Automatic annotation (TrEMBL):
Name of this chain's protein: Thymidylate kinase
Family in the record: Belongs to the thymidylate kinase family.
A GO term for molecular function: dTMP kinase activity
Alphabetical GO biological process terms: dTDP biosynthetic process; dTTP biosynthetic process; dUDP biosynthetic process
Binding site for ATP: G13, I14, E15, G16, V17, G18, K19, S20
InterPro entries linked to this entry: P-loop_NTPase, Thymidylate_kin-like_dom, Thymidylate_kinase
SUPFAM superfamilies reported for this sequence: P-loop containing nucleoside triphosphate hydrolases
């Protein structure tokens, strides 16, 4: 989808693939080309969305039901798209978003087993045909990615999931890329950081 000349790029991948560092690098590459870039994330991206993010990542005494999780994600997403992403694109700014709808199909659909049709209908209602121009998937084997997060941080509600959950998510992302190579770009994130950055720089040159 084109929004003036500015592009909407999303970055996806399981936890531990190095999204934050590489997104920052991607933004720098675009800025060096003289483009104006907005970096944002989901869940989050607005003050309300960031509060929703805290709720989504937290653990409560009761279990967070997948349906509750899904509706919270979309409540935040609608505000984010309408109040941040679309206005930025309309001003000619490129938008790089750390996760977007693919994460919902991957985590709530493939990971939690929710019906994809429910996600389709929420998308239809909230986004219509609005989708990213390009989606970069940072890919690494689950054991490598999880070893990175387990070393580095206190784990949130998602990060505490089992390896099998992340395996389903990884496979789902790879399947999206295989089915739609026009939109998805897979980067081998198991390589050392310098090589990953190199792959990203090459991608940025082409888009
Ligand atoms: P982050 O760690 O990449 O910032 O994302 C926070 C968590 O939110 C991550 O574990 C994946 C999860 N998530 C979903 O489950 N569904 C979604 O639609 C999005 C955007 C994120």
């Amino acid at each position: 989808m084109s929004h003036s000349n500015a592009k909407f790029i999303t970055v996806e991948g399981i936890e531990g693939v190095g999204k934050s560092t590489n997104i920052q690098w991607m933004a720098e590459q675009l800025e060096q080309k003289g483009l104006s870039v907005v970096l944002t994330r989901e869940p989050g991206g607005t003050p309300l969305g960031e509060r929703v993010r805290d709720i989504l990542l937290a653990e409560f005494t009761e279990k967070t039901l997948p349906q509750t999780e899904l509706l919270l994600l979309y409540a935040a997403r609608f505000a984010h798209v309408e109040q941040v992403i679309k206005p930025a694109l309309a001003q000619g700014k490129w938008v790089i978003c750390d996760r977007f709808v693919d994460a919902t199909y991957a985590y709530q659909g493939a990971g939690r087993g929710m019906d994809f049709k429910v996600i389709d209908s929420l998308n239809e209602w909230t986004l219509g045909s609005f989708r990213p121009d390009h989606t970069v998937i940072l890919d690494a084997p689950v054991e490598i990615a999880l070893a990175r997060i387990q070393r580095n941080r206190v784990l949130d509600r998602f990060e505490k999931e089992k390896a099998s959950f992340f395996e389903k998510i990884r496979q789902f992302y790879l399947q999206c890329a295989a089915q739609n190579p026009e939109r998805y770009i897979v980067i081998d994130a198991s390589k050392e950081l310098g090589q990953v950055k190199q792959q990203i720089a090459e991608v940025i040159c082409k888009i």
